[in-house]
Design a protein that fits this description.
By secondary structure, the protein is an alpha+beta fold. The protein folds into four domains: about 1-110, PAS domain (Beta-Lactamase, 2-Layer Sandwich), CATH 3.30.450.20; about 145-245, Beta-Lactamase, CATH 3.30.450; about 250-335, Helix Hairpins; about 340-495, Heat Shock Protein 90 (2-Layer Sandwich), CATH 3.30.565.10. The chain is about 45% helix and about 25% strand. It is built from 14 helices and 17 strands. The strands form four sheets. It has a five-stranded antiparallel sheet, sandwiched between helices. Strand 8 (about 205-215) and strand 9 form a beta hairpin. Helix 10 packs antiparallel against helix 11 (about 305-335), helix 12 packs across helix 13 (about 385-400) and helix 13 packs antiparallel against helix 14. The chain is rod-shaped, with a radius of gyration of 49 Å. The N and C termini lie far apart (about 115 Å). About 25% of the residues are buried. Bound molecules: adenosine-5'-triphosphate and magnesium ion. Adenosine-5'-triphosphate (ATP) binds near residues 448 and 453.
Length: about 500
């Protein structure tokens, strides 16, 4: 203990020594100055009293506490109740041991404890804020919706993982970079959404609720999203905005699938109705047609000496027979029959169609150019049905150029690789707008005036081609006009 007394006497900080029972037995010069009690054996009772008075609780109590618990180090902040303006004192007490036994304890006082005390909650606060911040950032990062925070000048401050996944841009490419908003959002869209946020139509002012808008991905593709956003204010001043973006692509895809399924149902319904209607109409029409053919043949015999009339009557008979065939096909269509299949020359079949339709007045101002592949093998199909398709496509092409006149280009070919026959009918009319390219194949869809079109031609054509395992599509030719492509499968020679 003597050693300690010697060591601590001139130490710059106030130091107290206690015996194993926690009783103060020594205090150094700075402690003398602090308490105003000189170190003397006689003053021991006095120093404890003054300390207890000044420090509350008394020093010996703290020493005893430390010694009883044998803590390596205990610290207390001691207020100065008599003079609250003075700094509180922090005392750190450590037991002195020899061979594992406490021989006393020493306590060192730090007089700048107020700063430490003040610094303590500050540090704790900082840690807390840091912990809350990191928790919030983690929450933002792992949210399935895209979250973006930007300042009032459109500079991105936060761009979470879902935003990265949705747009393909990394946070590092957009956060804090002036003008980066344009990459994935677009100034115009951002401005429109900000003004919608300030208005009242999309929720309370300063907020935007489930607003449908678009983002852009790295390839420039538009991403439909639902945006909920709010203006951020600090002390009443606008400092930025936060937006939560939900990707609507899956929802849109599902809606589109649903819409298509509904359309198919309606189509199936229409086709069924058409089937019922056509079978009843076909029966009714078949008889008068037979009558026309019969009477025309009688007249042919009567006018045998007048070759011109005989030729005209032959035309009447041929056309009527074609009508009968169409009626029969309508019946077949309603019965979903694929008709009579046999091998035939596709080019020849097309020429026969042209022979029938070209004399019509609607072809007056129209030039027809054929580019037939002469090496085409025979196709196995229902010739009458395929001819019905050709006729409808050629008539449609002519109708699209009814006012202006124009050209029809017909090509036949074979893709030997895929084993399909290709028939293309292209016109120089106005073409088919992109949004109508599927619609025109629906039953009863027509843009022709009432009485001129039933809107059945293409839907029946598609059914026929489908029944043959082929496809019929339309696109616009780069030079203008519609281009219908019919693909028919089939091995040559009817295999
Ligand atoms: N070559 C074409 N160019 C532009 N539009 C076309 C062409 N072919 C078809 N269409 C459009 O598709 C619609 C449907 O054609 P579809 O053949 O099914 O019926 P339609 O010709 O109107 O009547 P119909 O039952 O008498 O054939 C047409 O009304 C027209 O608007
Ligand atoms: Mg038509």
């Amino acid at each position: 203990m003597e050693n300690f007394i010697h060591l601590f006497r001139h130490h710059p900080d106030p130091i107290f020594l206690s015996d194993p029972a926690g009783r103060i037995i020594f205090w150094n010069i700075p402690a003398e100055e602090m308490l105003g009690v000189t170190y003397q054996e006689d003053n021991i009772a006095m120093v404890e009293k003054v300390a207890a008075h000044r420090f509350h609780p008394s020093l010996d109590l703290l020493f005893r506490e430390s010694l009883e618990n044998m803590r390596s180090q205990s610290s207390w902040i001691l207020p100065l109740p008599l003079d609250p303006c003075l700094s509180p004192i922090k005392i750190t007490i450590m037991p002195i041991t020899q061979a594992g036994k406490a021989t006393g304890a020493w306590g060192v006082c730090h007089v700048n404890a107020r700063e430490e005390e003040e610094a303590q909650p500050q540090n704790t606060g900082d840690n807390l804020i840091r912990r809350i911040n990191s928790f919030l950032l983690n929450t933002i990062e792992s949210t399935v919706n895209g979250i973006m925070v930007m300042d009032t000048r459109g500079k991105v401050l936060i761009f979470n993982k879902s935003m990265e996944n949705m747009t393909g841009f990394q946070a590092g490419e957009v956060v804090g970079i002036p003008g980066a908003l344009e990459l994935f959002y677009g100034w115009e869209t951002a401005k429109a959404n900000m003004s919608a946020m300030r208005g009242e139509e999309n929720g309370p002012p300063g907020r935007l609720v489930m607003h449908h808008t678009t983002l852009k991905d790295r390839q420039g593709n538009k991403i439909p999203v639902s945006l909920s956003a709010a203006i951020i204010k600090e002390g009443g001043v606008e400092t930025g905005s936060v937006g939560v973006f939900s990707d609507l692509r899956d929802t849109k895809r599902m809606e589109e699938d649903l819409r298509q399924a509904q359309e198919r149902l309606v189509e199936a319904d229409k086709a069924a109705a058409l089937g019922r209607l056509s079978s009843s109409v076909a029966h009714e029409i078949n008889n008068p047609l037979s009558g026309i053919v019969m009477f025309a043949e009688i007249m042919q015999k009567r006018l045998a000496g007048d070759p011109e009339s005989v030729a005209d009557l032959k035309e009447i008979i041929d056309q009527t027979l074609r009508c009968k065939s169409i009626v029969r096909n309508l019946l077949d269509f309603s019965r979903k029959s694929s008709g009579d299949w046999a091998g035939f020359d596709l080019n020849m079949a097309f020429r026969q169609c042209l022979d029938i339709v070209l004399p019509q007045s609607r072809f007056q101002n129209i030039e027809v150019h054929c580019s037939f592949d002469d090496n085409l093998p025979d196709i196995v199909a229902d010739r009458v049905q395929i001819q019905q398709v050709f006729i409808n496509l050629v008539l449609n092409a002519a109708d699209s150029m009814a006012r202006s006149g124009g050209e029809i280009h017909i090509t036949t070919s074979r893709d030997t690789g895929r084993g399909v026959f290709l028939i293309q009918i292209r016109d120089t009319g106005p073409g088919v707008p992109e949004h109508e390219r599927e619609k025109i194949f629906e039953s009863f869809y027509t843009t022709k005036p009432v009485g001129y079109g039933t809107g059945l031609g293409l839907s029946i054509s598609r059914e026929i081609i489908k029944a043959h395992g082929g496809s019929i599509t339309v696109e616009n030719h780069p030079c203008g006009g519609a281009m219908f492509t019919v693909e028919l499968p089939g091995k040559p020679g009817g295999a």
